[in-house]
Write the structure tokens for this entry.
Amino acid sequence: MKIAMIGSGYVGLVSGACFADFGHNVVCIDKDATKISNLDNNIMPIYEPGLADLVKRNVDARRLAFSTNLPESVRDCDAIFIAVGTPSRRGDGHADLSYVYAATEEIANSISKPTVVVTKSTVPVGTGDEVEIILGKHQPRELFSVVSNPEFLREGAAISDFKRPDRIVIGTEDEWAKNVMSEIYRPLFLNQSPILFTGRRTAELTKYAANAFLATKITFINEIADLCEKVGADVQEVSRGIGLDNRIGSKFLHAGPGYGGSCFPKDTLALMKTAQDNDSPVRIVEAVVQINDQRKRAMGRKVIHALDGDARGKRVALLGLTFKPNTDDMRDAPSIAIAQTLIDAGAEVTAYDPEGMEIAKELMPSVQMADSSYSAADDTDAIVIVTEWDAFRALDLAKLAEVMKGNVLVDLRNIYNPTEVTQAGLMYTSIGRNR
Ligand code: NAD
């Protein structure tokens, strides 16, 4: 199959490279010329484990190419995937669909043979209908079919998620489009990955429902963690106690500083808006959005509390800035609000992150970036573990205690054993464990 992927970001680049690895002929398109020229030189625009090798292998095999020229690249494709961003629209929280519609306009003027146009971006219910209307203004109805194929990959494990997905959702009722999509995903049919064919609107909503459910699960355990702190219970044990119940499941039950990232914050907000507009509010999701927003600054206050309630003139080191490990993605990362809360309270903040500092520098100009965990900790009053990178799981606690001025360790990911930390001479605060 000949495939065009519009948008070469986290989703488009990974999906395009994986489709090429399946044996398809793929061109990944982006309007960012620097991104494309870097990709031509095997320089990845994002940090994602295994991606550079996968891209190189498929470029060398001449199955994967990059381009800024959308009209030429999509002209004779069997399928065109739209994988552009759908951020929150400024001011109202609805998904901003301007990139999706701009890409659609460009496709509409360029296709020359029957083509399946697939929205892989996360888009609100009804977006496929709009895409169909735009295409229909320029092309006869029999030349295209619009399909929804939401993506469920997780950054940091994106390649294995794409190649071994829990399920693939394909929203179309058109037999021709079903056949094209089946051919594209054939290697996964052979892997026996479940493929669900649904209506287009159902596929669109399924993506939002999945993300909102996961965000709810995280928010639920975060509130239980707060209660644990008040009543002397241990949230780690509560999580295990409920997670072993097959009806609940153990994933997404790790208490922490609140969810962030490129998807959950904007997708929960967009679902909430769609639901309100349709007079069918999802009040659980509304509560989740509100609780999670408040939680990030509350984590900053937790650090201040550990500093005896006063951060003025104190030095605090943040270990981990990205919203989760194994990515350089800083979008809506809790570290941003935590750092700002500390700075607002008069603290001086330093930070170290294995991959996120390049992007973080722009977002948090008042935070001083260090080149290792220990240099970040140097002469500080408190260290805060914000993201659970492997590099932070086995720190030399005695060495930290030695280089620090103070002795406060706030572990927002519960990756340390309280006794071990205390024995190293540090004052330990974690989440939902009453210490
Ligand atoms: P991204 O910002 O990393 O990448 C989007 C890319 O599209 C950018 O490089 C941008 O330059 C390019 N682009 C925008 N308009 C274009 C146009 N007209 N022509 C060519 N290129 C254009 O975004 P992302 O994180 O890959 O997310 C893409 C979509 O996938 C979003 O809807 C997101 O919600 C969804 N999604 C993301 C993830 C994730 O983990 N990041 C997971 C599942 C779904």
The radius of gyration is 23 Å. The mean pLDDT is 97.
